[in-house]
Q: What sequence folds into this?
């Protein structure tokens, strides 16, 4: 019992208690375009005012529907690595453009300007950016940049004090390679070039918690470019492999209907610590 | 956005913050006998002092590994129905004998008296029973009754003020029918007879929150004998079907190794609210 575990305390304190009490449902997020059946997934990171960076992601993916915190999969670990470069290990908070996972390629763009979706998102951004210690916002991809700019118009004085790093989404390389037929190596290099372009400015606008390492990314992911998700970001008792880079949740099913209904959770091989069966 | 959701605030307040920080791992719970790889699952219900009944269950099952709260499956809904009969809708708290799911039939009994497992469990029972408003303990099955009596010896003065309803486990009927070859109808009738024997005494030792209904159970489960899990018992954003009586989590896999590693989460048919695919 020498191990002392950390965990996310969740949403008991205001304004978060109120925010998680009246989240929009499928009247605002149409269930044809969003996987509302898996419930909203709100955030990851510090809600106690200690965040220095806000990361704005897009929408929760498969792993997040189980862990109930956003950006815990590979995309999240890439972002975690970027934050580590600017000396931020836990002093961040992350929210998404959408509370629910987008269903279908086009749905994400289709609702980029929905007023009711924005209203609720703005309440979170107000809570996290107005009168807080956050000095920089990292927007992951175009939808996040658009969402941030919509909010910035509602709070121009606050936004004027914040640095925006509107970078490519951490899984841009995979998505663009699939869509364009270009080699993944090429799209990965483009992603990392983009991140390198923003690294210095981001570092200049964040007070680091720990050592920084502004060595640019190479043309492909290096062994230390991904950083693990800290234990303190997940709810109490969450298995350690929920924070691993090894994938552990997949949508499975022989047809579209079953696949939408199913998430298969599989303990990664490296975490199968039990005696041989 | 007219819907106001309730949710469990979790473990931010003491003594629970400390309890979830230093839970025992597989040095105390051997991974041959417990599914430690899914993490500990601590409780369900009120941690704010408003509980009037403590339910002591056995170990978390499949659904609980995902919802991260105990007794949410069919067993939990049967208990919820029992509590409703004595007028308790949300004023309860539930913990298990074991933090981790038992692996294999015999493992549960084998560790019934383990000192280190009991030490940690006693800290929870102290937190929930010493100087609180709980007046009755419902122990589900023999392991729970044994665990309660072990604790009672450490706190005899407090235990003397508490009513113990040591009832059969809510899934006793299914387990005993499988093990003995007796018809399920017969073992179900035996379970419900046992619960009926304890109903009056339990009601006499609990101040109800709402109306009571001490009509005895019939020989089989009636339509109102199971009660849904209240929304306030699950973490913020949890899908409503996580509280349904329809099963939604199963261990799948062609061999024992894969089956131990896998939980398949499937939205029940009644909760597939999306447009036809």
A:
């Amino acid at each position: 019992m020498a191990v002392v575990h950390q965990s996310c305390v969740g949403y008991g304190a205001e304004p978060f208690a109120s925010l998680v009490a009246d989240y929009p449902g499928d009247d605002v997020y149409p269930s044809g375009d969003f996987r509302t059946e898996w419930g909203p997934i709100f955030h990851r990171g510090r809600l106690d005012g200690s965040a220095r960076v806000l990361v704005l992601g897009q929408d929760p993916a498969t792993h997040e529907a189980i862990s109930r915190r956003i950006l815990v999969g590979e995309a999240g670990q890439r972002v975690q690595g970027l934050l580590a470069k600017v000396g931020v290990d836990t002093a961040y908070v992350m929210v998404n453009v959408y509370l629910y996972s987008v269903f279908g390629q086009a749905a994400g763009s289709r609702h980029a300007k929905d007023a009711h979706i924005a209203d609720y998102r703005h309440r979170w951004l107000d809570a996290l950016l107005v009168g807080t210690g956050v000095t920089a916002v990292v927007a992951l991809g175009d939808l996040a940049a658009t969402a941030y700019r919509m909010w910035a118009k509602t709070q121009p004085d606050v936004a004027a004090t914040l640095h925006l790093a509107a970078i490519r989404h951490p899984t841009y390389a995979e998505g663009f390679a699939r869509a364009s037929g270009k080699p993944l190596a090429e799209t990965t290099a483009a992603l990392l070039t983009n991140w390198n372009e923003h690294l210095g400015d981001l570092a200049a606008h964040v007070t680091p918690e720990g050592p920084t390492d502004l060595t640019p990314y190479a043309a492909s992911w290096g062994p230390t470019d991904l950083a693990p998700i800290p234990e303190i970001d997940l709810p109490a008792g969450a298995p350690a492999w929920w924070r691993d880079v090894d994938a552990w949740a997949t949508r499975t099913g022989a047809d579209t209907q079953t696949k939408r209904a199913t998430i298969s959770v599989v303990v990664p091989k490296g975490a199968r610590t039990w005696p041989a069966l």
Q: What stands out?
A: The mean pLDDT of chain A is 96. The beta strands of chain A are 44-45, 53-57, 92-96, 136-140, 163-167, 249-250, 262-266. The CA atoms of residues 85 and 213 of chain A lie 5 Å apart. Chain A touches chain B through 62 residues (CB under 8 Å).
